[in-house]
Amino acid sequence: MKLEVVVIPIADVDRAKQFYEALGWRLDADFVTSEDFRVVQLTPPGSEASIIFGKGVSSATPGSVQGLHLIVYDIEAARAELVDRGVEVSEVFHDIGGIFHHAGTEGRVPGPDPKRRDYASFASFSDPDGNGWVLQEVKTRAPGR
Q1: Which terminus has fewer CB within 10 Å in the chain: N or C?
Q2: What are the phi and psi torsion angles at 81 (to 5°)?
Q3: d(CA 110, CA 117)
Q4: Cα 25 versus chain centre, distance
Q5: How far apart are the first and last CA of the chain?
Q6: Beta-bridge partners for 71
Q7: CA 131 → CA 67, 107, 117, 118, distances in Å?
Q8: Would you say the pTM of this structure is higher than 0.90?
């Protein structure tokens, strides 16, 4: 099995589509089958998984999805690219516990992981509805990945 699509709850289809396209994500589909049903699919560069949002696609509250991870090779370069694209991105941080970041902004320590360990440096941003994304730096995958 492969995770291929994540459904994102949004309030305004065109606003969300514009936001994700501005990130440089590839538009895979934009299908309208009726006044009450529209499906938009986009894929981040280099990813095999995509997101879908639209009208009549999800009953979840817009902005309720949190902690979606985008794995990047260089956290500072990825953050800078998003900022250049007009996205409000947190500063790079690592977690006080050193394992995985806490929910929300609790336990954030400024700057990348001091040892620059894989899986330990993060930055975060939200889409216009408040769905939360996390950039996570990984240079070498854990065994078995």
Answers
A1: N
A2: -65, -45
A3: 15
A4: 11
A5: 14
A6: 136
A7: 8, 20, 27, 25
A8: yes
